[in-house]
Design brief:
The protein contains two helices and nine strands; from the N terminus they run H-E-E-E-H-E-E-E-E-E-E. By secondary structure, the protein is of the alpha+beta class. The longest helix is centred in the first third of the chain and has 21 residues.
């Protein structure tokens, strides 16, 4: 009986741990090195989407709140999110998308059309939000 309870505890612990890993992408991410936009990634069912949360550029500001990252699915074998798409609100084009979190905590987002190695890679750092007394939101790094 003790072995059975130990086995159940281990299986439950592993299940909780795997959920934490796949949800590591959830949060607000600041594009680097330009620091000109923030994407907020959230989970919807078994997929991950992202909306444009903040933009420095006035053209991109018009798209704040728009869902630009869609349908990413976590691949536990490769520890990446794949099979998604990303929309460029300026051009209207949609690209295939994959993402991974590097050991230093940087989110790498790959956008490509058909052939991954011909695509482009963008880097993001996780940010924390803080409200000040007048209700404005400021962003700060939470990682390295």
């Amino acid at each position: 009986m003790k072995q059975f309870l130990a086995l159940i505890t281990i299986v439950f612990s592993l299940k909780c741990y795997s959920q934490t890993i796949e949800d590591a992408i959830i949060g607000k991410w600041l594009k680097t090195p330009k620091e000109d936009l923030v994407i907020e990634v959230y989970r919807e069912g078994n997929q991950y989407n992202g909306k444009l949360s903040w933009a420095k550029d006035s053209e991109k500001k018009k798209s704040e709140g728009a869902v630009i990252l869609q349908n990413l699915e976590y691949d536990s074998d490769k520890k990446t999110w794949k099979n998604g798409s990303i929309n460029d609100p300026n051009s209207g084009k949609t690209y295939d998308a994959e993402a991974k979190i590097k050991p230093d905590g940087t989110l790498e987002l790959y956008a490509y059309m058909g052939i991954k190695f011909l695509g482009t890679k963008k880097s993001f750092k996780r940010v924390a939000t803080h409200s000040n007394a007048v209700g404005r939101v400021s962003l700060s790094y939470t990682g390295n």
